Structure formats: structure tokens, C-alpha cells
Amino acid sequence: MKALLIVAALNMQMTYDDMAVCKQAQQELTNHNIKSICIPKGRDSRTDDMMTSFLDMVMELQAIQNKEQ
Predict the structure, then answer these.
(1) Hey, which end of the chain has fewer CB within 10 Å, N or C?
(2) For 13-27, what is each residue's pLDDT tens digit?
(3) Which residues contact 58 (CB under 8 A, 6 or more apart)?
(4) How far is 52 from 58, CA to CA, in rounded Å?
(5) Run of H or E residues at 30
(6) How many domains, the chain?
(7) Contact 25, 14 (CB under 8 A)
(8) Among positive and negative, which fits the CA dihedral 56, 62, 65, 69?
């Protein structure tokens, strides 16, 4: 519980690239009698929206460039 409070107080968010790495870290914590869980990150919609907006902008710029030529 103390570790949870410290992590919460410092706003430390542990994220891993995939579930296998999370499970490996969870096993290390379990070896030290620390309870933990792995929660799937899910899809980051902000990144998708930003990328979509960027690609749309590139397409518009290319269309403008083609009209000028």
C-alpha cells in the first residue's frame, strides 16, 4: 500500500509497449511480495486524430500545388 501511495503522489505511470513486458514486470514485483495488475492501454484516439489531420493537410497542400502547376 505504501508503494501505491508513493506512486500516486508522484504521478508515476508505468506503461509498457506490450502485455508480455507488463507481465514480466508484474512477475518481478510478485517476487518481492508486491501486488500489481496489468491494464491494457487501449487505443490513443488523440494520436489517430492528429495523424489524420496531418495527412489531410498534406493532401490539401498537394492539391493546391497541383492546381498551381
Answers:
(1) C
(2) 677 778 888 888 888
(3) none
(4) 10
(5) helix 19-31
(6) 1
(7) yes
(8) negative
Burial label for 69, CB within 10 Å (0-12, 13-18, 19+), is exposed
Backbone Cα Rg of the chain: 21
12-20 — which CB contacts under 8 Å span 24+ positions?
Answer: 15/41
Task: Please give the Cα distance from 48 to 54 (Å, whole number).
Answer: 10
Contacting residues for 59 by C-beta, under 8 A, at least 6 apart: none
Query: Grid coordinates standing for 13?
Result: 505511470
Cell of 51: 495523424
Full-model pTM: 0.44
State mean pLDDT over 40-66.
Answer: 81
Q: Which amino acid is present at 16?
A: Y
Q: Which three cell numbers stand for residue 55?
A: 495527412
